[in-house]
Amino acid sequence: MQISLVIPLFNEDESLPELSSWIEKVMLANHFTYEVLFIDDGSKDNSWNVIRMLSEKNPNIKGIKFTRNYGKSAALFVGFEQAKGDVVITMDADLQDSPEEIPDLYKMIITDGFDLVSGWKQKRYDNTFTKNIPSKLYNTTNRIISGIKLHDMNCGLKAYKNEVIKSIEVYGEMHRFIPVLAKNAGFSNISEKVVQHQARKFGVSKFGWERFINGFLDLLSVTFMTRFAKKPMHLFGSLGVLSFILGFGILTYLTIDKIFFNEFGIATKPSFYFGIMLLIIGTMLFLTGFLAELVSRNSTDRNHYLISKKIGLD
């Protein structure tokens, strides 16, 4: 199979028929063998019935329904598990991502040899103040911290080699940082493509301001996990040693002042307490590093999601 489309969705029953028809048109025109995996993330509308109806008309359409809303990362995780295509393409279900981009994305993976290609919505049809400007700030911060030069890391339209999505684990809200996870797994041949962005036709955006606060915290989290997950002592130990040395240096200076220069009342000086505080913090950070080395970061239920129904899947 050439292409697997993984499409997470939440309350998108109005857009699904048009999206499916559009995808089918593009696939037939390019003679692709394909599958479409709709991941219903606990929709409250008629989305699942629409998916079931569409699958009866087109056997390439498959579906997975969660018992409740777990989030986009969970939907992508189970979709990646099921995807069988040589190239896996993700897109949103709200018709803002154009299926016309699929042939070029496929070519960039198969012919040009990229591991991952991320869409870049150079021209966006979103609210300037609530989405466009914050998105630019978010992506700038992302580029600085991650070192990956993508203009739109959070674009839902992406293409991957199958081995890439089988080699990474997406959980929590880490779908925003899949390029970072891929790079950390050894897939550094990452590129981007300017893609067409459509104005929303149905429904409302699931976007909220809390996404940027959570996104920044997630960025710090994924940066730590990718750089120090296997060696937490390198971070905590280094900070602990630095703090300990600074504290020890301050107290040594005060001691020399007391012994050789008859300085009185060193215990009343703020620097004395600051030095002691640095010693304590340094010791705690060092111990934290040791404990972090011992504690496994793996959780048995981190990626366990309750699925109520499936279509076209074992």
How is this fold's topology laid out?
Layout: E1 3-9, H1 16-30, E2 34-40, H2 47-57, E3 61-66, H3 72-82, E4 87-90, H4 102-110, E5 116-120, H5 128-146, E6 158-161, H6 162-165, H7 178-184, E7 190-194, H8 210-228, H9 232-261, H10 270-294, E8 307-311
Parallel strand pairs: 1-2, 1-4, 2-3, 5-7
Antiparallel strand pairs: 3-8, 4-6, 5-6
Helix pairs in contact: 5-8, 9-10
Strand order of the largest sheet: 7-5-6-4-1-2-3-8
- The overall strand count is 8
Share of residues in helices: 40-55%
Net shape = elongated
* Overall average pLDDT: 86
Strand portion: 5-15%
Q: Whole-Å distance between the termini? A: 17 Å
Stretches with pLDDT under 50, minimum 5 residues: none
Count the domains: 2
- Fourth CATH level, the homologous superfamily of the largest domain: Spore Coat Polysaccharide Biosynthesis Protein SpsA, Chain A
Helix/strand class: alpha/beta
| Multimeric status of the protein | single chain
Q: In this structure, how is the largest beta sheet organized?
A: 8 strands, mixed
CATH class of the largest domain: Alpha Beta
Would you identify the CATH architecture of the largest domain? Alpha-Beta Complex
Q: Could you give a quick summary of the protein structure above?
A:
It is built from ten helices and eight strands. The chain has 314 residues and is α/β, with parallel strands linked by helices.
Question: Could you describe the 3D structure shown?
Answer:
The protein is an alpha/beta fold. It has two domains: about 240 residues, Spore Coat Polysaccharide Biosynthesis Protein SpsA, Chain A, CATH 3.90.550; about 60 residues. It has an eight-stranded mixed beta sheet with strand order 7-5-6-4-1-2-3-8, with helices on both faces. Helix 2 links the parallel strand 2 and strand 3. Helix 9 packs antiparallel against helix 10. The longest helix has 30 residues. It starts with a strand and ends with a strand. The model has no long low-confidence stretch (mean pLDDT about 85).
